[in-house]
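Supplementary Note 3. Input sequence used for the single-chain structure prediction.
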Amino acid sequence: MNIQELKLKSSEQLITQAEELGIENASTLRLISATALTPGDFDSQEDFEDNVLERLEVQKNFLLINKFLDNQINFAQPHIPKKK
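The predicted structure, written as discrete structure tokens, is reproduced below.
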């Protein structure tokens, strides 16, 4: 998928796609900002789009790692002795 395809999607479509990737509560998550990126920062529009897509991939992986950690914590919680 390229940046043009992402731009054509509505917020609802992007949220649905995120949830299909296994990202729970995608509509309420704070996402890594790409506002620091401007086309003028790059030699070409293609370089800019590649960088935005790379950030989106990093963001997706970050969210998947957080989901994994949440699952591990939820699994371990019943096995942690309660404080007295």
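The radius of gyration is 17 Å. Residues 3-79 form one domain.
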